[in-house]
Write a structure and sequence with these properties.
The structure holds two protein chains of two kinds. Chain A is mainly alpha-helical. Chain A has a single domain, classed as Arc Repressor Mutant, subunit A. Chain A has a three-stranded antiparallel β-sheet with strand order 1-3-2. Chain A is globular and about 50 Å long. Chain A starts with 9 loop residues before the first helix and ends in an 8-residue tail after the last helix. Chain B is an alpha+beta fold. Helices cover 37% and strands 20% of the residues of chain B. Chain B has a seven-stranded antiparallel β-sheet with strand order 1-2-12-3-4-10-11. In chain B, strands 8-9-5-6-7-13 form a six-stranded antiparallel β-sheet. In chain B, helix 1 runs antiparallel to helix 2 and helix 2 runs antiparallel to helix 3. Chain B is globular and about 70 Å long. The chains are: A mainly alpha, B alpha+beta.
Chain lengths: 114, 319
Amino acid sequence: MVPNPLPLTAPVFHILVALSEGERHGYAIMQDVAWQTSDALQLGPGTLYGCLKRMLAAGLVEESDERPDPVLDDSRRRYYRMTELGRRAVRAEAERLENAVTAARSRRLLGGVA
Amino acid sequence: MTADSVLVRCLSSIYSVLLYVWPREFRLAYGGEIKQVFRDRCRHVTRTKLLQVAVITGADWMSTTFREHLAAARKPVARGSIAEWSMTILMYLFATTTLVQAYVIPTGSMEGSLRVGDHMLVDKLTYAKPVPGVRHLLPYRDIERGDIVAFKYPEDTHQTFVKRVIGLPGDRIHMANQQVYRNGSRLIEPYTQHIGPGPDTYRDDFPTQPEMLTTPKGRDMFAHHMAHGDVIVPADTLFVLGDNRDNSLDSRYWGFVPRDYVIGKPVVVYWSYDAPTQDLEHWNVPHLIDVAEHFFTKTRWNRMFFVPRSQQAEEVRVN
């Protein structure tokens, strides 16, 4: 019933990577993605929540009831965490990307040795 | 450094209105959080980067509009979809007719600041006549000397021109040997360039030779708005000059720009493409093919998101 999520789109992949170390709220995810990609991927709010909506439906993430940071807490914010399925998906995607990079490197498309 | 909170509030209110374009379900589920994220983002960037954030968010708003409506339409039960789509279309029309307008620079009269082929967004709100109820909510402001404005060309209102404001109502202006004098002070204008084909007394020592002029509005300027070798800018008009001072048809040739003719403020170059003037003024099939073939090589990528700035000329008191 749930469609196979692989390969992941770039925003979905980076959002999952952002959630790999724990729960985050929307803005923290946005900042983390910008940091991961050196600002190459700047998610707009609509794209971010559109992705989260689809990721919730696909079971890659879930909403968290816990409030991880009571000091900075704000009731308007919701926190998201990665599910086991999400973790498997992001790992599979990272392996796929690693294989792709290794292949590119072996043909000398990138610097370094194969 | 955080950006001006008034500006952030303005942008946030505009953004929350724009969110009504999105499908109701998506808006209700995530609208609050989305607004919160946008505010956080605005607060964490410097004022100069705020515009970039606004542009990125605007593009994101458009793509989300299409994506979420498509997603909503695929659902088996599309509740109130006609009402929703009408709302979407209305909001889209509102945004594109009253907030921004796309405009392309067809000639080189502002070369040095703006290049032929710069495609820009013009902010129609800032210089608009303030609507009483929302006067303090929206970022209205008066036109100042040194601002770049887009306006309807007084001799042919179908054409849009972009020039720099040199004189406001009441200012006395003349030029001597290519230097602008305003109210008796010489202006030091770092934004101008002089790459003229040679001296031209009419152009460089304005307004010493009114008899040379032929446009009706220009003749009116010489007949009614001159005193002691200066032109005097009348009420509710502007005196504008091109930065490419020697190759610019501007207020020297066709008089003042009525305030009502001002369309807005060019805010950002969203695409710059190296093409000749006639192709930019009238799109044609060879031009479209040219764009398709040379999009990546003829697009001036370094001008992407260039923001033209107002620049005040330094005034040097003479006599």
